[in-house]
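Q: Hi! First time doing this. I have a protein sequence and I read that you can turn it into a structure. Is that right? Here it is:
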Amino acid sequence: MKLIDSILLSASVGLFIIGINQLFADKEFYWIFMLSLICLFAYQIRKLQRKEKATEAKTQVKSATTAPKQKKNFTNTNRTKKKKRRK
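A: Yes, that's right. Below is the predicted 3D structure, encoded as structure tokens:
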């Protein structure tokens, strides 16, 4: 978890707690809950993007390591060709 992710998550939780406090104090609290949700959504988006990058990296590594096997080429070997029989 990076620093920005930690800040977004803690800001979301902190603003949610402050919003609950303002709810019971009968003051304006709606905008505080909205800021909390924005921080939470931003955290979720960053988390999903990080997962997508990780899966892309894994598939690239797999495709690079598991190259298709090439067929052996016997044209440059010391084997002699079979002669055709005459009838």
